[in-house]
Amino acid sequence: MTTSRSITVNHLSVNYRDIQALRNINVTVQPGQLVGIFGPNGAGKSTLIKAMLGLMPVITGIVTYGEDYLAHQLERVAYVPQRSHIDWTFPATVWDVVMMGRVSKTGWFRRFSAVSRQLATASLERVDMLEFRDRPIGALSGGQQQRVFLARALAQEAELFFFDEPFVGVDQKTETVIFKIFRELADSGKIVMVVNHDLGESITYFDQLILLNKELVAAGPRDWVLTRENMSRAYGGHIGFFGHAA
Questions:
Q1: How far apart are alpha carbons 36 and 83 in whole angstroms?
Q2: Fold of 7-243
């Protein structure tokens, strides 16, 4: 399902352990966009998407999707957290993990339908991981694990996709597969928001950028955001374009 609705963030401020993590963030994300969220360590990148999804409390502000709060529509959302926040010792196979993406559609303790199993199979094929379906998730490489969680997100049939640092510790093949699927999702009218730290050439894959350093430095098309002034404001003048020293 495609969407014509936008995500709107209005005056969002967040405190984390009594420290202001985000201050007065205002941004709108249109459907059909692949959006990268960038900024230095501690800039509030992960905090932004968690606050948008209602996964942490906010001090002020609201986040809407269409006419309603985004946090009231989480059935439309696929969210993949940082790999470091996932318990890889949990005794689940690749197939188990992907089928978890069908629970919200199926309901707890109900039998998965043939349609759900077909979607899970197609999602694993799409990320080139079907042959690993019976492997324990903890036995895979970092790149393989990330592809499995992308398959779970695809199986959810979501409208909105949020990924937190999906390229950390992955191989080039996985990065290529992930960006290809992100592009396909955006081109089909979905909203895809990605927390990223890499200022290398991969930044050119994104349609729009959100540049943060606890407050919004800039948001919009790459060429508009990636100015020397904006980068200096975000990174303190220590970094230039595509990761080269300023």
A1: 18
A2: Rossmann fold (3.40.50)
